[in-house]
Amino acid sequence: MYLPMKIKNLLTALLIIVAMPLYSQNRSTYRSGISAEENLRAISDISPTSGGGMGFDTRYKGVKGSPMLFDTLLSSYLKVTGQEKYLMLDSDIDLINNAVRFIHPSTKQVMAVPASRVEELIISRGDSDLVFRVMNGSLLKKKTNDPVFYQVMNDDSFKLLRVPVKEFMEANYKQLYSPGRNYDEFYTVNRYFILTNDGSVLQCQLSEKSLIKLFPQKKEMIKKIAGEKNFDNKAQMVTEILKSF
């Protein structure tokens, strides 16, 4: 049967329209798409800052640093409150959650001891043993009464304390005048205090000027020791001065 060209074209268009949903239905993701396992892998790299999984901004580079003090587990000795013996562990200090994290010697699971249970932690790093203890946070200028970790820098009657703090800086690259930081970052800030022989805790800077301000009666001694020799670092200078108090 002869059909005019216009009718042929109309029939062809109708066949295409009818076939389109059938083709689309046969190609649906849940019938022939990726597996559930592949789905999990596909979404595993979505950053915490992307909205509802719709993160198409590939400039974000993730997080640098970590909440941990050393970013690795080190050989250490942990003394828990109420116990006489030290536990030999591989551990690190979680400064954000205020705990000692360690590998259980038997199960190899990562576990944690809160600062409130810690009496002393000695971490071996290189040729040095770093001694950490805890103190009420309010005494160390913190807005908390929870115990806070500090490192004991010397073993004299006047002690220099180093309090490591983890700061968190968010990525900032989307504003017009932003510095272009396309990653979040944890970084460590050290604050220093002096624990005196009567139990007072004084915040200080690692400088001759700061020590003279705290102990004006010892001004001449401080200036003499500070000028006697070249120290490897400012902390060494301060501990050398405190040794003479």
List keywords for this structure.
245 residues; alpha+beta; 11-stranded mixed sheet; globular
Task: Give your account of this protein's structure.
The chain has 245 residues and is α+β, with helices and mostly antiparallel strands. It has 6 helices and 11 strands. It has helices at residues 5-26, 29-32, 36-43, 208-214, 219-228, 234-243, and strands at 63-64, 74-80, 87-94, 99-103, 110-114, 118-125, 128-136, 147-152, 159-169, 184-195, 201-204. It starts with a helix and ends with a helix. The model is unreliable at 14-55 (pLDDT under 50).
* Strand residue percentage: 25-35%
As a whole number of angstroms, the C-alpha radius of gyration is 31 Å
The secondary-structure element order is HHHEEEEEEEEEEEHHH
> Care to count the β-strands?
11
Q: State mean pLDDT (0 to 100 scale).
A: 81
Q: What about the largest sheet? A: 11 strands, mixed
**Shape, please?**
globular
- Structural class of the helix and strand makeup? alpha+beta
The termini sit apart by 116 Å
Low-confidence stretches: 14-55
**Share of residues in helices:** 10-25%
Number of helices: 6
